[in-house]
Amino acid sequence: MVFTRLALRSARPTPLLRQCTTPIKHQHGAVFARAAFPNGVRTLTATSSQQGKVLLVLYDGYEHAQQEPKLLGTTENELGLREWIESKGHTLVTTSDKEGENSKFDQELVDAEVIITTPFHPGYLTAERLAKAKNLKIAVTAGIGSDHVDLDAANKTNGGITVAEVTGSNVVSVAEHVIMTILVLVRNFVPAHEQVARGEWDVAAVAKNEYDLEGKTVGTVAVGRIGERVLRRLKAFDCKELLYFDYQPLSAEKEKEIGCRRVESLEEMLAQCDVVTINCPLHEKTRGLFNKDLINKMKPGSWLVNTARGAIVVKEDVAEALKSGQLRGYGGDVWFPQPAPKDHPLRTAQYKNWGGGNAMVPHMSGTSLDAQARYAKGTKDILESYFSGRHDYRPEDLIVHKGDYSTKAYGQRKP
Questions:
Q1: Where would you tag: which of 55, 170, 201, 373 has the fewest CB atoms within 10 A of its CB?
Q2: What NCBIfam families does its record include (predicted)?
Q3: Residue 300 and residue 255 share a domain
Q4: What phi, psi does 122 have (nearest 5°)?
Q5: CA dihedral for 17, 10, 58, 151, sign (positive or negative)
């Protein structure tokens, strides 16, 4: 179902408005009209006189957005930005419809000046889509992770569009989710909970695949803002060893403080780890990184956690590794594509011997209500910098700017 709000440039009635059946009073006072379409698409249209267009792509909240106003990352609550954006004299178009050439996203981006989307319901800005976006100047990620944008194409579009994200806005949220997922897998929580929910009671059936985290070796692929926080939180569990693989080492002081060690080779680290957590960005060198060959270099029966990006793993190879027993469990919240199709193999993949081993959830680790408040505010700050003409963005928020990369996190790609 699609739920779209548009702020039109003119107050003149349109054919769409003539189809309306029920006027609706918006919380900010604008009058919307609900229109029915043969394909079930619902559209809410507001009329006002505006200038530049901001296109906002979010997931639908339905009754949940009404029940909890803090659910800012929904089409209904619009990051809390509608009133402020319209007060600046701009049009705001909000949609969840982002798939296919006839999507509302594709229809509206052709003259959008600003595009805002999230990692949780990404509007994929491919080279083909960017070529159609003749007015686009800035693409903002409400959250962290701008791999849904073709960054090479962004550097060449309209003289170079700015791609920015709200760095740091949900690193704590994701790090906490990583720790939770590790414990859920190692302690065999999901099968145990499902057992009692069925009205059964068989301790042996679930305890036979339950372990302690203490005494295990845990490694993180990348030790940036999230990876470092994961290691810091793991320190309290008295793991046998905390390892990390990253092109850039932590300082000797941080390594000593955390009690972790850098491993020069990814394969060498994986062979030692009982638990591996992926915390690196998605770019051309990490896409499909965890394929059959690399997974087979992991310690047999180990657990793999991925809250980074779904495309970093080859989903079929992860499912096969669970089926063979090479992996004892896989968990996280990232999928490719998103939303994940109903037949995505990681929805139902299970550990070979006794089932379980699956701790996958929708993409939620970085979108807690606390995180939503932070990335909504950060998005507003980026827009304020843009609208004002100051362009005094926080350097850490910039991914590409003025036709060039502003960070090494996504790699220096095609020249």
A1: 201
A2: PRK07574.1 (NF005750)
A3: yes
A4: -70, 135
A5: positive
Residues 118 and 205 in one domain: no
pTM for the full model? Answer: 0.85
Residue 116 marked ligand-binding = no
Rounded CA separation 401/386 (Å): 12
- Structure tokens given for 102: 């006839």
Question: Are the beta carbons of 91 and 54 closer than 8 angstroms?
Answer: yes
What whole-number distance in Å separates Cα of residue 290 and Cα of residue 326?
13
- Residue positions annotated with a catalytic role: 170, 309, 338, 363
The answer to whether 173 is annotated as binding is no
| 152 appears as a binding residue in the annotation | no
Q: Which of 174, 9, 142 minimizes the C-alpha distance to 78? A: 142
Query: Domain tally for the chain?
Result: 2
209 close to 354: Cβ distance less than 8 angstroms: yes
DSSP 92-141: EEEES--SSTTSHHHHHHTT-SEEEE-TTS---B-HHHHHH-TT--EEEE
For the residues 284-308, what does the mean pLDDT come to? 97
pLDDT in tens, 336-349: 998 999 999 999 99
Q: Residue 140's domain spans which residues? A: 53-167+369-405
Contact (CB, 8 A) for 378 and 169: yes
At 174-204, the pLDDT tens digits run 999 999 999 999 999 999 999 999 999 999 9
For tokens 């009205």, the residue is 199
User: Is residue 285 part of an annotated ligand binding site?
Assistant: yes
